[in-house]
Design goal:
single chain, 395 residues, alpha/beta, Rossmann fold, 13 helices
Length: 395
């Protein structure tokens, strides 16, 4: 089995393409002949598919076909903006995402909740097996460790705070959307000293034309697939912060007189990469955790080989005992039982140390060579494809 990540983010794709990718419904469509497990992480600045596939290229093709079908964009058009990681590099990407190193606002802690929700959604959809369960649990733990042991999440703490920091100072605000992002926006506006904060739930967007005429600023953060603010609704100077993906505000609104529109595209262009001691410390934590997880992954790959070796030994023992029975029909049942017990004990004792040692060696860097050697020496067919056998596709 191979662990892979196929995705696109604000670093690799346009906002328009990320909007299309955000329409992918969930992890279930990715499951099929060539994809055994899947988790879909979709945020305002990334769409990642974490998957376990029996064969790298066939799995990648199936994921590409699903993305093309769900977005209406051919995979040939998508591929220049899509990154692919496998094996240890997929683990590294997951841990970096969880730690906030791949976020638009480096270190923002909201990604942990989004990753937890993605994992829960996949669990509910029954698309998580042993490998992705372990990966998601470890990624969440790495993210928590990064925030607990460093100051990576010091200001600005989120996309919301970074966007509002760019907005001109006004006092009367409306927040469209009552979800987590909307709640965060209300909290930040209160800290900034907003005099009035009106909340509009998505079900009540018919009130927006009137409300937009009464406020000076509006934050949009709904899950609507269509714009909730159109050009015809805006009749006065207004500060608009659009944090939604897909966008809540028609792009043409930006051209209206007196309107300041801050969206994810604006935000991405305004945030400089963070190079700080905290970032370097989190990168060290992530790399330590990647190496520890890689050892577990290599050890897990050794398990089928060890099982196959023991099965081969049991098969040989059974064959020889049957031959003994045919050659020595004079043996009593008790005698045959004694012989069988003794032969089994000898085989188990002979195999114990080598199998323990191959598990230990397999967990070390380059350890897949040991399991491959055992399979070749004993001609074992375990249907194991090592993640190291597949070339990495760079982001």
């Amino acid at each position: 089995m191979n662990l892979i990540v196929v995705g696109a983010s604000h670093r690799s794709a346009s906002i328009t393409l990320l909007e299309r990718l955000s329409r992918v419904g969930g992890p279930r469509p990715f499951i099929g002949e060539h994809v055994a497990e899947a988790v879909l992480l979709s945020t305002c600045n990334r769409t990642d598919i974490y998957a376990v596939v029996p064969a790298f290229h066939a799995g990648l093709q199936q994921i590409g076909e699903v993305l093309a079908r769900e977005t209406g964009v051919s995979y040939e058009e998508l591929s220049p903006s899509v990154y692919v990681h496998h094996g240890v590099n997929a683990v590294r990407h997951a841990f970096r995402v969880a730690a906030g190193l791949e976020s638009m606002v480096v270190g923002e802690p909201q990604i942990l909740g989004q990753l937890r929700d993605a994992y829960q959604n996949a669990t509910d959809a029954d698309t998580v097996g042993r490998v992705l369960h372990e990966l998601m649990q470890q990624a969440l733990r790495v993210g928590k460790r990064a925030h607990a042991e460093t100051d990576i999440d010091r200001a600005p703490r989120s996309v919301v705070s970074a966007a509002l920091a760019l907005a001109p100072s006004v006092r009367r605000w409306a927040v469209v959307g009552a979800g987590a992002m909307g709640s965060l926006a209300r909290a930040h506006l209160a800290e900034m000293g907003a005099a009035e904060i009106a909340v509009v739930r998505r079900a009540n967007t018919h009130e927006l034309p009137r409300l937009l005429s009464e406020v000076d600023g509006v934050v949009c953060a709904t899950a609507s697939v269509d714009p909730v603010i159109t050009k015809s609704m805006v009749t006065k100077p207004l500060v608009i912060v659009d944090l939604a993906m897909p966008r809540d505000v028609e792009p043409d609104v930006r051209d209206l007189p007196g309107v300041t529109l801050i969206d994810l595209e604006t935000l991405g262009a305004s945030i400089a990469p963070a190079y700080s001691a905290e970032v370097h410390e989190v990168e060290r934590i992530v790399e330590d955790e990647v190496q520890a997880y890689a050892g577990w992954l290599r050890g897990a790959e050794a398990a089928p080989t060890v099982a196959a070796l023991r099965a081969r030994a049991e098969e040989l023992v059974s064959t020889e005992l049957r031959r003994l029975t045919s050659r020595r029909p004079d043996l009593t049942d008790a005698q045959r039982a004694d012989v069988a017990h003794t032969v089994h004990r000898i085989v188990q004792r002979l195999l114990h140390q080598p199998t323990v040692r191959v598990r230990q060696l397999a967990a070390e860097p380059g350890g897949e060579a040991y399991t491959r050697l055992v399979r070749e020496l004993f001609e074992l067919d375990t249907n194991v494809t090592s993640v190291s056998d597949v070339p990495e596709v760079a982001e």
